[in-house]
Design goal:
Layout (H helix, E strand, L loop, with lengths): L2 H28 L3 H28 L4
């Protein structure tokens, strides 16, 4: 796969993942569970999104030898 194709497809996939789990976390925190009930899930979502962004950078953006 070319560099540009990997960068575009990886970016779209990463953004879709972040939007999905971010909105899921917001929904849980503003719904029945409340802020403190959804807080542990929110922390997990932040960590997972950070790992997804790092993986996108590592696989698609960073130049390898």
């Amino acid at each position: 796969m070319s560099y540009l194709t990997k960068a575009i497809v990886g970016f779209i996939g990463t953004i879709l993942l972040i939007i999905f789990v971010g909105e899921l976390s917001r929904s849980i925190s503003s719904g029945f569970a409340g802020f403190w009930g959804g807080f542990p899930f929110m922390v997990i979502v932040i960590i997972v999104c950070a790992m997804a962004v790092y993986d996108y950078w590592d696989e698609c953006i960073r130049k390898k030898d």
